[in-house]
């Protein structure tokens, strides 16, 4: 029973060392992965928006959704291997790989703004929560305008 351990350890080491995008067997999988993640982004943004539009926004509910966003946002940007704009119903523009720095800037801005949203909602500060939410929504839109086909 001693022998099989080595390949397993090796596989684990490779999985940890490999960049996230290398984990997709085919470009279709990367597309499915990011479309799933972005569906979640849309859902949780929608829930926060609904709270902010209600008469009595629940800051704990917003904080909970913001924490989920904080995690899922980070997942989507690991799922854009080059050439995966050509698969499925992808609306990704090839500019993503021509101007990776700009794409990454948006991703970083999103993470920063969502961190502010988490902090403001946890602190129970409604007006800071509103303005952080607006910044987040603006980054979503700005990146879509530049990098997503209509
Ligand atoms: C760094 C750029 C970038 C940011 C920031 C970004 N997106 Fe996207 N998003 C994309 C791209 C590119 C696509 C198209 C992906 C594809 O079709 O392959 C997309 C697609 C989507 C889709 C459609 C998924 C589908 O089923 O095809 C939704 C919903 C979405 N994004 C929501 C969001 C929300 C909500 C935010 C902000 C919280 C956000 N995105 C932030 C780049 C971004």
Could you walk me through the main structural features you see in this protein, from its secondary elements to its overall organization?
It is a single chain. This protein is mainly alpha-helical. The chain has a single domain, classed as Cytochrome c/b562 (Four Helix Bundle (Hemerythrin (Met), subunit A)), CATH 1.20.120. Helix content is 71%, strand content 0%. The protein contains six helices and no strands. Helix 2 runs antiparallel to helix 3 and helix 5 runs antiparallel to helix 6. The chain is elongated. It starts with a helix and ends with a helix. About 4% of the residues have low confidence. The site of heme C (HEC) has 22 residues, from helix 2, helix 5 and helix 6.
């Amino acid at each position: 029973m001693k022998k099989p351990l080595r390949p397993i350890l090796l596989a684990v080491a490779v999985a940890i060392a490999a960049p996230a995008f290398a984990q997709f067997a085919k470009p279709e999988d990367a597309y499915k992965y990011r479309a799933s993640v972005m569906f979640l982004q849309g859902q949780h943004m929608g829930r926060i928006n609904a709270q902010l539009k209600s008469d009595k926004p629940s800051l704990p509910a917003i904080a909970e959704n913001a924490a989920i966003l904080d995690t899922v946002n980070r997942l989507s940007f690991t799922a854009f291997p080059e050439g995966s704009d050509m698969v499925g119903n992808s609306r990704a523009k090839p500019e993503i790989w021509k101007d990776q720095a700009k794409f990454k800037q948006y991703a970083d801005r999103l993470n920063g703004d969502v961190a502010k949203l988490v902090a403001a909602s946890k602190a129970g500060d409604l007006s800071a929560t509103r303005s952080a939410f607006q910044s987040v929504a603006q980054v979503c839109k700005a990146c879509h305008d530049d990098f997503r086909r209509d």
